[in-house]
Specification:
By secondary structure, the chain is an alpha/beta fold. Helices cover 44% and strands 21% of the residues. The strands form three sheets. Strands 4-3-5-12-6 form a five-stranded mixed sheet. Helix 2 packs across helix 4. GO terms for molecular function: DNA binding; DNA-binding transcription factor activity. This is DNA-binding transcriptional LysR family regulator.
């Protein structure tokens, strides 16, 4: 256990330096953000290393790589700094009715189809001077673009977040089958043999056909025949209306497609993995009045949209 003498060596400036180094992984950029010279930041890092008896960061190429000890203590330090900031920051009054500016949200296209329209309509009612900007976002670059200020938050299937980000659960993305019953000539519910034998159209940004669906189907001793792969969900309805084929899509966009294009949806005849959809935002925005209002508005609108479309899922009660 760390003794009192060691604790007294660690002040708020050292913790802040550690936090910025975790984010930047570069001494020059971290020093610039902290308004310090590089010698000053190096001295702070040296004091922290001595106090914790760990290297904390090792040089890899032109950047810094955190040690296992640094990675283990980073979340607690970020929480502590966030708590201090919330305690000393004066309460922000945010009035959406008079505010003028942009709200920016990052989403992949299947979530845009389900939520962007209702969110824009509600924002127009509550904040008529605001503009909603939707940014195409993939989970692999969401964290980087969030740090660059491209959007206020991202809604996607996110990977494990950095210590300076918050990942709030929203809902599990259940999968459904969708097809044109006039083209396919099958009635729901589909049998496992029907599902395996019919032609499939898949969605893949990178053009890859194999997914967790193929793994689940393979466990039954079956495989499917993929006849086409499209890069975006928006191309699916016209493809399905043109050929006797089926697609497996998230329920939220599947129900939108069914309503708009007269397609049939049904549950898959086997258990398929449900990806957790989450909201990713910066920890420093946790107490910001405008950002907090926008996040809560999205959660409210998304929950109503899921319910109105008949989806079997709803927004998690623990969503921020």
């Amino acid at each position: 256990m760390m003794n009192d003498a060691t604790l007294r060596k660690i002040d708020l400036n050292l913790l802040l330096a550690f936090s910025v180094l975790m984010q930047e992984r570069n001494v020059s950029r971290a020093a610039e953000r902290l308004l310090l010279g590089q010698p000053g930041l190096s001295a702070a890092l040296r004091r922290l290393r001595e106090a914790l008896d760990d290297e904390l960061f090792v040089r890899v190429g032109r950047g810094l790589q955190p040690t296992p000890r640094a990675l283990s203590i980073a979340p607690a330090i970020e929480n502590a700094l966030s708590g201090i900031e919330c305690a000393i920051r004066p309460p922000e009054e945010f009035n959406p009715a008079t505010w003028q500016g942009e709200f920016r949200i990052g989403m992949c296209d299947n979530l845009e189809s389900a939520f962007f329209g209702p969110l824009a309509a509600r924002l127009l009612q509550l904040s008529p001077g605001a503009r909603l900007i939707g940014i195409a976002a993939e989970k692999r670059d969401a964290a980087r673009r969030l740090d660059e200020g491209v959007f206020d938050f991202s809604v996607s299937v996110h990977e494990e977040p950095a210590s300076w980000h918050i990942r709030a659960p929203l809902f599990d993305q259940v999968l459904v089958c969708i097809y044109d019953s006039a083209q396919l000539g099958l009635k729901a519910p589909l049998s496992l043999d029907d599902f395996a034998n019919v032609a499939h159209v898949t969605v893949s940004f990178e053009g890859n056909a194999a997914t967790g669906i193929d793994i689940a189907l393979g466990s039954t001793g079956r495989s499917r025949r993929v006849v086409a792969t499209v890069p975006r969900f928006s191309a699916l309805p016209t493809a399905l209306r043109a050929m006797p084929a089926i697609a497996v899509v998230p329920e939220s966009i599947g129900r939108c497609m069914a309503q708009l294009h007269g397609l049939t949806i049904c549950e898959p005849p086997l258990s398929l993995p449900a990806d957790p959809v989450t909201m990713l935002y910066r920890r420093v925005d946790q107490a910001d009045g405008r950002a907090r209002w926008f996040r809560r508005l999205f959660i409210e609108v998304a929950n109503e949209a899921l319910e109105a479309s008949g989806c079997c899922v709803s927004i998690s009660r623990t969503a921020a």
